[in-house]
Amino acid sequence: MRSRAKKSARHKGHEAYLRQAMMGDFFPEDIHLYRLDRHDFVIYVGGDPQQTGNTDNSDNGDEPGVEHNMADRFELNLSILGNLDPERPILVKMASCGGNWEEGMQMFGAILHAPNPITVLATKWARSMTSLIPLAADRFVIRPPAQYMYHRGTYAFDGLDEVADTVDIERRRATERMFRIYVARLKEQGMFSRRSEKAIREMLDENTRKKIDCWLSADEAKRWGFVDKVYDGKTSTLRITKKNTERRQRMIAVLRKNIRVEVFVS
Questions:
Q1: In this prediction, what percent of the chain has a pLDDT beyond 70?
Q2: Which of 13, 116, 221, 254 has CB atoms 3.0–4.6 Å from 148's, for a disulfide?
Q3: Measured between alpha carbons, how far is 246 from 20 in angstroms, rounded to an integer?
Q4: Residue 55: its pLDDT value, please?
């Protein structure tokens, strides 16, 4: 018994040493290069200053939006903070124009499975892919004058004709999953929560077909139910302190639910 107790004590001491070592020295360069503030448990998500001229979002200058570098770095940063302290609340400051579906869903899944309570604060806007990513968080806060925008997204394909049908099936699956995520949030809370899932879906679908890009102010997004809170400037109450387990389980169920796509052959 004594031997086991000594080993356990040494193990805990080693873990504490490793956590302290991971904190290391703090320099502003850490935030700019790695988009991570280890001391305050803040992750920054936005245009990478080291990447210019490489973007699919031509209407947003050189901002690359959500792409593989952002997604991989975000997941690494979540892992680093989770290893330092799996219970300490994390704040994600998000200022991105949207971007790629696959990489965005990587970030969505990373949030759902992170051990820490996670708050996402949208500071510039939450649009397209970045209107979806925060819906995985335990709390989603938006700071005026930032706006919320959802749409069906854009799609481009370049390849063999034989592959086009297969790619289109995946496109339709992604669109269906996107709408299911939106519906799950609006069914959870907000002014449409008493409607059926079918009615909410029809409303969203009609809006995207009529308006294409559906913009909501910060307060409108809160009333609809997409956003949990409009930022009031109080940093002491900004971060959620406990995981929203029910929300996470609901979103995981949405991701795992089978999607059937009918294939029409002429």
A1: 79
A2: 221
A3: 33
A4: 45
Q: List phi, psi (to 5°) of 147.
A: -120, 165
- Distance between CA atoms of residues 178 and 162, nearest Å: 26
Over residues 16-37, the pLDDT tens digits come to 655 655 566 666 777 888 899 9
Q: What is the pTM of this model?
A: 0.85
pLDDT at 30: 79
Q: Which residues pair with 91 in a beta bridge?
A: 42, 119
Name residue 186's amino acid. Answer: L
What are residue 66's DSSP bridge partners? 99
For 125, the 3-state DSSP assignment is strand
CA distance 219 to 148: 10
Q: Looking at the DSSP assignment, which residues form a beta bridge with residue 37?
A: 42
* Spatial separation of the C-alpha atoms in residues 217 and 130, rounded to whole Å: 15
Rounded Cα–Cα distance for residues 2 and 113 (Å): 37
3-state helix, strand, coil in the chain (%, to 5): 50, 15, 35
Distance of CA 46 to the CA centre of its chain: 12
Helix boundaries (H) for 66-157: 68-84, 101-112, 129-132
228 or 7, higher pLDDT: 228
Determine which helix (DSSP H) or strand (DSSP E) holds 11, and give its type and residue range: helix 2-23
With tokens 């004058």, the residue in question is: 145
CA distance 210 to 13: 61
Contact 66, 98 (CB under 8 A): yes
pLDDT beyond 80 at 191: yes
